[in-house]
Structures are given as structure tokens and as C-alpha cells.
Amino acid sequence: MAWLYLIVGGFLEIAWAFGLQESHGFTRVVPSVLTVAALIASFALFARAMRVIEIGTAYAIFTGIGTAGTAIVGILFLGEPAEVGKLVFITILLCGIIGLKVISGEKKPAVQQAGDSGSVSAGLTTNGGAVSSERQEVQ
């Protein structure tokens, strides 16, 4: 599910980038509201995906989808030139995104902070079949 969040978040990045232009510097109300909504949803999905996907991979894919997609939208809908060099580099970028997806694993469980008590939860460990919770004090 994290990959779906990341991909949808990337497509929403394309939407808010396009919306920035259509809002004319946030002077047009409807495009401005839609742009801000897409931006918030995009980052919320990106943040949710990073619970599972490593940050380096997640960020590269998220921004890669946004970058390539925005360039393609510019070519298809905004009359930007479809130069050979631009198309080659968009293709390289898309290959990098696909490559990162293929080789990426999931995050290892992270150490979580337990409120403001100054302790850190290091997860559960097994000791000869018995499960115990470990806590470390943080200075």
C-alpha cells in the first residue's frame, strides 16, 4: 500500500505544480484552492509512504514522478518544445524511478520515541521464546 501512496502522491505533485501556473501566483481563487489541496494531499501521501519505504528511495521516486510528469504535461498541454534531449533525459529519469522501485526493500523497524518521558522504545525482542519490551533512557 505504501507504494500506491507514493505513486499517487507523485501524481498529485504533478497536479499542484501545474496548478501553480494556473493560479497565476495565487491570484485566481479556484486554481489556488485546488493547488493547495493537491499539495497537502501529495505531502500527506508521501509522508505516509515513508513509514515503510526508505526516505532516499521514497524521495527520489516522489520527486522523479513529479519532475518527469510535469515536464510531460508541459510538452503535451502547455506547448513546451519536445526536444530530443529533453525526451532522452525524461526517459533516463523514468528508468531510474523504475530501477529504484525494483531494487528497493522496506524499512527496518525504527526506534520510536515514547512521548516526552525521555525514553525510547526499541521494540520487542525474544529471549528464549519469551517476549520482552526494551526501553532505553535518553539523556
From TrEMBL:
It is a multi-pass membrane protein. It comes from the Bacteria. Pfam families: Multi_Drug_Res (PF00893). The keyword Transport does not apply. The chain crosses the membrane at residues 27-47, 59-78, 84-103. It is found in: Cell membrane. Residues 114-130 have a biased composition (Polar residues). Residues 112-139 are annotated as: Disordered. InterPro entries: EmrE-like, Small_drug/metabolite_transptr, Small_multidrug_res. Its main location: membrane. Keywords: Cell membrane, Membrane, Transmembrane, Transmembrane helix. Belongs to the drug/metabolite transporter (DMT) superfamily. Small multidrug resistance (SMR) (TC 2.A.7.1) family. This is Multidrug efflux SMR transporter. It comes from Paenibacillus terricola. The lineage of its organism: Bacteria, Bacillati, Bacillota, Bacilli, Bacillales.
